[in-house]
Here is the input.
Amino acid sequence: MNETIATLKNHYSVRNYLPDPIKEEQLQAIIEAAQAAPTWGNAQQLSIVGVTDVDKKKKLSEIIGQPWIDQAPVFLSFNLDFHRINQALEADGQSFEAAENVDTLLVGTTDVGIAMGNAIAAAESMGLGIVPIGAIRTRSEEIVNVLDLPKYVFPIVGLVIGYPDEINERKPRLPVHAFYHKESYQHDQLEAIQQYEDAIKTYMQSRPIQKTWTETVARYYSHDKGIPQTSQSLEKQGFDFRKND
Here is the structure.
């Protein structure tokens, strides 16, 4: 195992940060690592808005309701971004029609995820801590306004970066055989789920909020709460996938 793999396997989220600023060259290296990630068709349909201004970070923290955004020195918004593509097509006498295709959302969000994975690996390789902020989508309209995102740009996920003021245990993952399926998908996952429930129960005993894995995922996926708001926000940013119905 080399240092890169060791860094990747030792990931954990950090929610307590020291006030120490990140060096500009460190942040630049993280951004360049994210930009080096592969994108579909080399279209580069994503962008990052970095926030280090104290007042703006505080505002974002209050909007999203996560204090570590204010506490850490850097917050990055990873965005689905077709603004540049729209401008390039218009300059070439063409129009951006793919905003009506759900594959546009899949392509853009996939590229965002790959880029953020690179950014996380780069940050953690320098001894920095991170925590992804998926809740950025729940208040997307306000985030769009604060970051002045133009049409065809939508915030997908945030990333807090700073020097950790805590050392955490790695959160257990599902058994590898539930994650990696050899040759074909193994449909019966109940045994693996139970194994994981036992592991996560032990892990959560020392945590203030003690939930099983099923209870955690039920919070997000046993209903469609929040989806209409996200859909409306996407529409306001120029995306309308209902035309595919």
Q: What stands out?
A: The mean pLDDT is 93. Strands lie at 46-51, 74-81, 129-133, 153-162.
